[in-house]
Amino acid sequence: MRRGASTLRRLLLMLVVVGALAAVAGAQASTTTFSFTFDTTFPLCNGDPIHLNGTLRGIISETQTPSGGEIAAFHFQPQGVTGVDLVTGTVFHATGTTRDLTVSFPPGGGTETFINQFHIQATDGAQSYLNTELFHATTTPDGTVTVFLDKTFSTC
User: Fold this and answer.
1) Could you give the C-alpha distances from 86 to 41, 90, 91, 103, 151, in angstroms and in order?
2) How far apart are CA 64 and CA 27, in angstroms?
3) Each residue of 129-155: b (16+ CB within 10 Å) or e?
4) Which of 29, 47, 97, 98 is most buried, taking the most CB atoms under 10 A from its CB?
5) By C-alpha distance, which of 152, 137, 153, 133 is closest to 76?
6) pLDDT above 70 covers what percent of the chain?
7) Phi/psi at 12 (nearest 5 deg)?
8) Upper half-sphere CA count for residue 3 (Cβ side, 13 Å)
9) Is the separation of the CB atoms in 18 and 11 below 8 Å?
10) Stretch 32-61: mean pLDDT, rounded?
């Protein structure tokens, strides 16, 4: 009897593994990677204009699930983005990331999570700037929002 139970467990495990592999094989996915020039001028917390420029790297992916849903994600990150305070000449370096993940379900509804954290680091002891945005929403198939968070804050 013990031998039969062990064989049955192995058979069930194999069926689960085959099912999982079939689900992954049934998904359609695509990913695009690109870079583009980031060039902007805006006021710092002290009112001085800062000119930032450099490269932003982007990655966008989309996956169709076997059940008919979709997972879409994007990611942006500054690479070599530097700036100059146009009044004082202070040099800044930009770091951070922007990410969004959206999951939709076949009967409707889904979730979205967005995070943006952009840090402009000053040099020579000057004041730095941090901007953070957090957003999350979960929606049921009938359109009811069951979870909602939207928070933005900046520090200087």
Assistant:
1) 9, 8, 10, 42, 30
2) 5
3) beeeeeeebbbeeeeeeeeeeeeeeee
4) 98
5) 133
6) 83
7) -65, -40
8) 0
9) no
10) 93
pLDDT at 80 > cutoff 90: yes
pLDDT at 53 (0 to 100): 96
CA distances from residue 54 to 9, 32, 51, 85, 101 in whole angstroms, order as listed? 57, 20, 10, 15, 25
Q: Indicate if the pLDDT at residue 2 is higher than 80.
A: no
d(CA 52, CA 78): 11
116: how many CB neighbours lie within 10 A of its CB?
Answer: 16
Q: Is the pTM of this model over 0.70?
A: yes
Determine the pLDDT at residue 27.
Answer: 59
Residue-level pLDDT at 51: 96
Strand partners, 53: 39, 82
Contact 138, 111 (CB under 8 A): yes
User: Could you tell me which residue, 20 or 49, shows the higher pLDDT?
Assistant: 49
Is residue 6 scored above 80 in pLDDT? no
| Distance between CA atoms of residues 150 and 130, nearest Å | 17
